Amino acid sequence: MTGWEELVAVLQLGGWPEALGRARLWYEPHLDLIHEDAEFRRADLLQLEQIASAYPTREKFLTDVTLDPPEATSAEAGVPLKDEDYLILSTIHSAKGQEWKAVFVLNVVDGCIPSDLGTGQSSDLEEERRLLYVAMTRAKDQLTLGMPLRFYVTQQVKRGDRHLFAARTRFITSDMLEHFDVTRWAPPHATEATAPAPGRVDIRASMRDMWG
């Protein structure tokens, strides 16, 4: 491959993330010469550039990519069938720069968002807030924030019921709930005060009917 002097000159111009875009433009003419799947690789480079634009520094971008690298390129995926439903599971870090029509964010409770390890300093807490913002803004049409009511304790007896109650993330305050449609997985159970009283049962008559 030739043109290393041009690449060095491009990278020395500085600026982030503009430097990544300039490097892509330098590299694109070489794609057709080196790779048979040049179109797929060109799309991957554009996606990488879009993801990088969400990072304030080159160091932060390289750190996240190193800790959570992509496992495959889009060239390895097949065309989905019209009658085929599929679900994409992703971490918030991997979702940066991407969008979907519907997004479900799981465990939007304190202890998860923000995590227990992300509440030590104000800067850590703001980073956790930013991650929730990234997750919520990945949705184009529909966003669902899931909040479990309780977490079961591990390493307990079989069918044990020891659990911890979950609290909504501090980033979604009570004043903000008017902007959400709050729904529940199932309607609340009737309380003892509202539940109908059981009727009188004639056990003797029931036994006669059963056994003659």
Topology:
Blueprint: H1 4-11, H2 18-34, H3 38-52, H4 58-67, E1 100-105, H5 122-136, E2 139-145, E3 150-152, E4 163-165, H6 203-211
Parallel strand pairs: 1-2
Antiparallel strand pairs: 3-4
Helix pairs in contact: 1-2, 2-3
Keywords: ATP-binding, Exonuclease, Helicase, Hydrolase, Nuclease, Nucleotide-binding
Pfam family, one: UvrD_C
InterPro entries: DNA_helicase_UvrD-like_C (IPR014017), DNA_helicase_UvrD/REP (IPR000212), P-loop_NTPase (IPR027417)
Précis, in short:
The protein is an alpha+beta fold. Helix content is 35%, strand content 9%. α1 (4-11) packs antiparallel against α2 and α2 runs antiparallel to α3.
What key phrases describe this protein's structure?
212 residues, alpha+beta, Rossmann fold, two-stranded parallel sheet, 6 helices, 4 strands, elongated
Give me the CATH superfamily of the largest domain: P-loop containing nucleotide triphosphate hydrolases
- Report the structural category: alpha+beta
Total strands: 4
- What global shape is seen? elongated
Evaluate the radius of gyration.
27 Å
Helix content: 25-40%
**CATH-scheme architecture of the largest domain:** 3-Layer(aba) Sandwich
Q: How is the CATH topology of the largest domain named?
A: Rossmann fold
Largest sheet: 2 strands, parallel
Q: Which CATH class of the largest domain?
A: Alpha Beta
Number of helical elements: 6
Share of β-strand residues: 5-15%
Separation, N- and C-terminal Cα atoms:
95 Å
